[in-house]
Amino acid sequence: MPTTSRPDESRPTGRRGSPVLRLRIGLLLIAVVLSFFAARLLQLQGLDPKSYADMADAKDVVEMTLPAARGDILDRNGVALAGSVNGRMIIADPFRTASKAPELATLLSNELDLDYFETLEKLRKENSRFQYIARRVPAADARELLDKLAKAKLKGISTEDEPIRDYPAGDVAANLVGFMGTDEPLAGFERSFDAHLSGKDGESRYTQGFGYRVPLAENSTVAPVDGDDLRTTIDRDLQWYSQKVIAQAVEDYRAKSGVAVVMDSRTGELLAVADAPTFNANKPLESDEDDLGSRAFNDVFEPGSVQKVLTAAALVDAGKVTARTRIKVPAQLRRQDRPINDWFTHGVLRMTMAGVIAQSSNIGTVLAADQLDKRTLHRYLSGFGLGLPTDVGVRGEARGLLPSPEQMTAQNKDRIAFGQSLSVNAVQMTAAVNTIANGGVRVSPSLVAGSATTDEGVEVGSDHATRTRVVSEKAAHETMLMMERVVDDEVGVAPRAQVPGYRVAGKTGTAQRVGENGGYDGSFSLSFGGFAPADDPRFTVYVVIHAPAVDGGGGSVGGPAFSKIMARALSHYGVPPTGSKPSRTPVEW
């Protein structure tokens, strides 16, 4: 029988497919891999951890501002003068836009009016997944842009919500409301009350990979806090009408500018503060820089003869004159280094104090004011608010100039009495005339309904209005009777300021304008200020036309605009005529 061997006795024990060999090779591979990871870990955490962390953040973590909704600016009835509408921010993901950056930059720059090279740089930004391309783009424009990008098969551009500031009435109250730049307020209430209106932006931070959010990675959101609304005392309809009237007057008289102010006689609330020229708050860059503020607060001028009613009220309150006091008015009054004349040529006139006001006599006013010393005159005029800011919350307000008693010479005291050698802004003068309308009590003007705090930390608004008695109620009434004679058909200089059916008390003003060299430039500021109904005042209106290119005075130029605005205010608020007869106080003796 042949001998046979066992199969496994003829083969080596360490053959290639044995478990021992496979185990040794596996352990070797694991050791190599672990060594690689160890080296990488040492590099990341030991050698330069910050640079790699920053690189990861730059590439994968997106930080995006969530804009707060800005508060609305409202008129007294809650109608929006400024609000926010839907808008979009345009965002690029450079990781996806870099390959077609030139083509994208061309389309974006054309559609959004952007700088091509700046846009191209953003589209190619290295180590970035998020770049702002444009801010506050109207929603309709953003949708149109996305459609064009889709048709061109260009990717990597997206949008997010971002409110846009809108001024629905265009130029109505733009001189007060102001306007916004791309990222900051630039004028008016938008700037003065920015903290009140702006709220606080939120933030979204998330990890992105290949253009999508990574679900389980970092993802945090801080919600925005919307701003508060600002309610003003302005009546939008009356503001619109006042702007229309003053703009027409500036055009008709070929004037440099004009202002109209409407005040509630009882509360001091400003219902309209109109400037001409003004601007469209939606397109401020299309207007001259000089037109972007509020002339009613920022420009100062000599008030002219409107000032005489303040002097007259002071004299009556001090017991020096009454409306019937007799004054002999010479043809010319020689004082100090130059004579004082009236606006009209005359001989010796026998006027009452009411006649001095009705005929706007400089000479008669100076003779009457001789009974007040400098300190007393200054005390009364500062009591009326001259030389003091109104502090209603308008940035850049000019306080005007009222010389102190120490600065006041005999010469400029005379001229201050009839409205020269001092300066005011239009709202200051409105509040001063309104003091007579309000029975001798000055109520501080306000533009904010209720209360609000400016960015300078000043609390303003109707809740903070102050009341200060300047002259007695009797003195205010006596002055009103004199002012009524100004609009009288027979004896007054401003019959065109009448409002049919109503008793009107007012005063004209004609003042030389100061030029850039500090001297009078040959032009004039013509004004009319008054209130109605005269015997139960509801509104005070003050109109100023600066540098008209026609002959005339405050009655013929400012009077008609005053009449139109006052008539609209009385009608708009349903104020009935009192039905009483106007003053017939004698003007001569």
From TrEMBL:
Primary location group: membrane
Keyword annotations of the record: Cell cycle, Cell division, Membrane, Transmembrane, Transmembrane helix
InterPro entries: Beta-lactam/transpept, Beta-lactam/transpept-like, PBP_dimer, PBP_dimer_sf, PCN-bd_Tpept
Domain Penicillin-binding protein dimerisation: 66-205
The keyword Nucleus belongs to this UniProt entry's keyword annotation: no
BP GO terms, sorted: cell division
Protein name, UniProt field: Cell division protein
Bilayer-crossing regions: 21-42
Record family assignment: Belongs to the transpeptidase family.
Subcellular location(s) per record: Membrane
Gene3D superfamilies (UniProt xref): 3.30.450.330, DD-peptidase/beta-lactamase superfamily, Penicillin-binding protein 2a (Domain 2)
Residues annotated as domain Penicillin-binding protein transpeptidase: 258-566
